[in-house]
Amino acid sequence: MSTSTALYLARQATYAAFLSAADSESSVCWRKADGQYPTPDAARAAQDVAYTVTRDAYNRLLVEPMGPHAEARIVIDAIRLLGRSSAEDQDWHAFKQAREDFVDAARVCLSETLQA
What we know:
By secondary structure, the chain is mainly α. It has a single domain (3-115), classed as Four Helix Bundle (Hemerythrin (Met), subunit A), CATH 1.20.120. It is 81% helix and 0% strand. The chain is elongated. The two termini are 15 Å apart. 26% of the residues are buried.
């Protein structure tokens, strides 16, 4: 396996893990705002666990000097707003747009990895 292929696969896994973590955490935010957790403590615990997974995935993006860092930060910011908002105030459009922008930036980075 060439170095560029190995790097591509590692980056692809990192980007996919971040997206999965962001999707999971945003789901927790929605369930919290919808009142699906039995207690506020249960909601907070679920949010804390999801936050930890997302933060870990985000940190894996930051250790490399290139990639979609700025786009990932915008996804994180959108999730944080979802987590602090009521069901009526959650801005899912902003989250989905930030997620799409991250995916587009990740695709460009992956494409450039194979061309290097």
